[in-house]
Design brief:
Elements (H helix, E strand, L loop, with lengths): L25 E6 L3 H16 L3 E2 L8 E6 L4 H21 L3 E6 H13 L5 E3 L7 H9 L11 E2 L21 E5 L1 E2 L10 H5 L3 E2 L2 H13 L4 E5 L16 H8 L7 E4 L9 H9 L3 E6 L7 H6 L6 H19 L3 E8 L6 H14 L3 E6 L17 H24 L5 E9 L7 E5 L10 E5 L7 E9 L4 E5 L10
Parallel strand pairs: 1-2, 1-3, 3-4, 4-5, 5-6, 7-10, 10-11, 11-12, 12-13, 13-14, 17-19
Antiparallel strand pairs: 8-9, 15-16, 15-18, 16-17, 18-19
Amino acid sequence: MAKKGEHERRRGPDSPSKEPLTKGRSVFLLSLGCPKNRVDSELLLGCLAKEGYSVTERPEDADLLLVNTCAFIEPAKEESIEAILKLARIKDSNGDGKLIVTGCLAQRYGSQLEEELPEVDHFLGTNSFTDIGRIVRFEEGPHEGTRPLPRLILSDPKASHVEGYPRIRSTAGGSAYLRISEGCDRSCSYCVIPSIRGPQRSRTIESLVEEARALVEDGVVELNLIAQDLSAYGRDIPSKPHLADLLRELGGVEGLHWIRMLYAYPSPMPDAFFDVWARNEKVLPYLDIPLQHASDSMLRLMRRGSSIDQVRRDLAKMRKIIGAEKGGLTLRTTFLVGHPKETSDDFDRLIDFVEEMRFENVGVFVYSDEEGTAAFDMPEKVPSSLAEERRARLMETQQRISAEHQAKMIGRRLDVLVEGVSEESDLVIQGRHAGQAPEIDGVVYLEGQTPRPGSIVEVEITDSHAYDLIGMVPEEFPQADDA
């Protein structure tokens, strides 16, 4: 089984959950990077569906090759470049068709890519998905008297979120991402996201509830709230709505069963937030709260704006309130190792902290030296080999803790959202319980009956691994063919 939690960047499926109504030319889309990129990809597919494009899973069969790139860290940039070059070779072998590159890599390095990759027909920035329609219309002609479109179309990093565009969901099993804001106002020393995605722009509660209802009508039962910083939601809106207000309204969406919070900056939250979280049964006892380190000196260098003692108090409050009301709390976090000036003592404090807190889910990044960040100009860089050793040691520690958490699940009966056929084998059906977020945490492999994807069924856990569980579906549950 593939190990989960070692790295946050996972590639999602490239085909949507349903075919567009209008058949026409075909597009192959490769979506790289984070869930926020995934939403952009779904919007791209929606815009192309309006132009008569259907989706193919084989790039060799596509009239349009499209890759949505990531540029968060060096490995992500390398993966994006490799994907572009691979699709360029396929385009050349086909003899026709177009190749379009979009996303963070294009936004960050557009001018350089335009010069170095002549095989790419167009480069689009992070929010330029709205231009995809006029690009394909121009390329297919006729367009007498019309000026050729530029190869590079960058996004305004301060532009408001574009509402009302179609979206073709690419997530499986009744689950979807709901992006509640774009950009970020933080100034973490290692992060390039604000320079790529711009400052925070929150969406209104009304628009989010409207989209949530549309997703539920499309078969969604789980919404995963995403943003660069959930904790800051609404601060940039004149009426100053809070995440608690959004949770309250989403909780009233009929047909929605699970609401999960992903990527909440470790900031003190008001009592109203805990009240809504604890009392609304749809809001899962799960929080992704990236802490990045446990040494105060490193937190200062990283510009995280909090002390480790404050973090301890906040996590203890969450576990006390939510754990008591909902029978437990699953905490997921991420850590960054190898940041400039990280000493062996700093890292030992991090190891001790992970042992102490016993997080259910942990991801670990190795520092990437990114130009334009404050850390890029810092002295005392940690050798990459040492940083990799620290990552491996931290993940080994967490793997043991995770295995102990998983073993305690044996014999319990858990509600599981059925996703469908496993990524590991066509012979296995998988799902997730409330403590497992899509794509980044473990899964539950299902035995017994075969429930319909998108259904929620109570499962008895019969075995466990370091990150995954095995569960038995009761015989009385309707099989997929009967559901």
